């Protein structure tokens, strides 16, 4: 199964997990709109899953003569997403379409290619304004987290796992809504900074 198109008519599907080789997201849109109920998606082993995808969330409504009457914004049903295609996901058309996400896990799978997120990717992340949980996992050469995380005003849990090159938290502060900061298998510099935040964030976990 190279794409999700064989599953695109499963309108009652609410959860999908896939771990394999180079799956593409074609067919995903119909699972998230037009009566689809998919709200939880985990895809690993497909680092180009979202690349080049334009979900085109605006559709023209036509009358019987085929004339365009108005444009309607189509919203996604997805609430939880884990992916190892951070680069493909963090694009404005995709993040705008997935703006209802409440939980996002980005997996690097030990990647040494990603050292920092581009400004375009950081801008796209800002469109996920409903995020309550955000995790970065196994980005071995990532030097810093995306800027402006403090603008994600619904964010309650931030997790950073196995990202040894990150030595500090964003210089422009964290969201005031943050309830839990979870740092595991990261640098001593980052852990020390987190210890300095004890008392300002209700729950800080370090391993």
Protein architecture, described:
By secondary structure, this protein is of the alpha/beta class. It has a single domain (5-50, 72-206), classed as Leucine-rich repeat, LRR (right-handed beta-alpha superhelix) (Alpha-Beta Horseshoe). Helix content is 15%, strand content 27%. The protein has five helices and ten strands, in the order E-H-E-E-E-E-H-H-E-H-E-E-E-H-E. It has helices spanning 28-32, 86-89, 92-97, 119-126, 188-195, and strands at 15-19, 40-44, 58-62, 68-73, 80-83, 103-111, 133-139, 157-161, 180-184, 203-206. Strands 1-2-5-6-7-8-9-10 form an eight-stranded parallel β-sheet, covered by helices on one side. It is globular, with a radius of gyration of 18 Å. The N and C termini lie far apart (38 Å).
Number of domains: 1
Kindly estimate the percentage of residues that lie in beta strands according to DSSP.
Answer: 25-35%
CATH architectural arrangement: Alpha-Beta Horseshoe
How helical, in percent, are the residues? 10-25%
Strand tally, please? 10
CATH class: Alpha Beta
CATH topology: Leucine-rich repeat, LRR (right-handed beta-alpha superhelix)
Which stretches of 5+ consecutive residues score pLDDT under 50?
59-65, 67-72
Biggest sheet: strands, sense, closure? 8 strands, parallel
Q: What is the N-to-C succession of helices and strands? A: EHEEEEHHEHEEEHE
Global shape = globular
**Helix vs. strand class:** alpha/beta
Rg over C-alpha atoms, rounded to the nearest angstrom: 18 Å
Output the CATH homologous superfamily: Ribonuclease Inhibitor
């Amino acid at each position: 199964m190279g794409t999700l198109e064989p599953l695109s008519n499963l309108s009652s599907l609410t959860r999908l997990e896939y771990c394999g080789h180079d799956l593409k997201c074609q067919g995903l849109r119909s699972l998230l709109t037009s009566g689809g109920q998919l709200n939880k998606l985990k895809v690993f082993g497909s680092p180009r899953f979202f690349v080049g995808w334009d979900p085109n969330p605006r559709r023209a409504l036509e009358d019987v003569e085929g004339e365009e009457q108005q444009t309607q914004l189509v919203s996604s049903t997805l609430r939880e997403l884990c992916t190892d295609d951070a680069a493909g996901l963090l694009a404005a058309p995709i993040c705008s379409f997935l703006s209802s996400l409440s939980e996002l896990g980005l997996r690097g799978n030990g990647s040494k290619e990603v050292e920092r997120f581009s400004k375009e990717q950081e801008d796209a992340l800002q469109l996920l304004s409903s995020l309550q949980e955000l995790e970065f996992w196994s980005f071995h050469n990532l030097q810093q987290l995306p800027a402006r995380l403090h603008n994600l005003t619904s964010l309650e849990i931030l997790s950073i796992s196995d990202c040894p090159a990150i030595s500090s938290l964003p210089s422009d502060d964290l969201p005031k809504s943050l309830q839990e900061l979870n740092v595991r298998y990261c640098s001593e510099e980052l852990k020390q900074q987190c210890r300095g935040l004890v008392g300002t964030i209700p729950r800080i976990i370090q391993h």
